[in-house]
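User: Some background: our group keeps a shared notebook of sequences we're curious about, and every so often someone picks one and asks for a predicted structure to add to the entry. Today it's my turn. The entry only has the sequence so far, pasted here. Could you supply the structure so I can complete it?
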Amino acid sequence: MKSSSNQLVPSYSVADIQLDVGDHEFKKGVKILEGGGVKNVRNDKHSFYADVVGSKAGQWYSVSVSAKEFDRGDCTCYLGCNDQLCKHMVALAIHVVREFSPQGAEEIVQPLDQAVCSGEVRNIKPDEIDKIKVNITKALKYVKPYSGPSRTWFQYQDSLSRGCRLLLLTLSDLPVCEKSVDIIVDVLKRLERKLMNGVDDSDGTVGGCIEEVVELLNLFSDINPSLISYINKKIPQGEMFDWHTVYQHYL
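Assistant: Of course. Here's the predicted structure to add to the notebook entry:
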């Protein structure tokens, strides 16, 4: 195996890792890494390898992650031996981005699984609308129907989670105004249509995202009460989801 001086550059960023694993698992990986728990990092032509500390004193695992996809790899821990992504792989993936691709090392600082409001009360600009719509379309591509075998169901759920996190991250940039309300309501309608057309949300990922999107309307209303009447006119009458039970300012 070649030394890491033969630099291999990961194709993913720290933000990609966060969007895939969520806040809780990402913080576990960061804790391991920043506690000095990733040692003897090296690489071949395709993957990175390291020894990563376990939870028990003196316990170390042999870990690898692909340079193309961080969730492709191995770990000798219990989860890794069962072909599941673990915190040790996450720790190594974060390390290799910071070390070999520092331009991709910036972290997402806001929570990824809950609504966050920009707090800016102003009209949205046309170029912002274009960017937001592109990112919404990208996020919704991960929220797709499922008809595959049971062995790929967990991979499918990961796709739903990534899409929902990316969607909430995108909507968090919206300024507080009527046009932003229109965009949020359109997202709600599109999510409901997806639920009605084959999305397997048996673990509640998309339903939880819908609640957080409606919660963003609550935050808008708290910051700018003049929007309450407009939101009440726009908020959809859901066929599968009663939006009004979540919108706290329903008239």
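Suggested note for the entry: The beta strands are 38-43, 47-53, 60-66, 73-75. Residues 14-104 form one domain.
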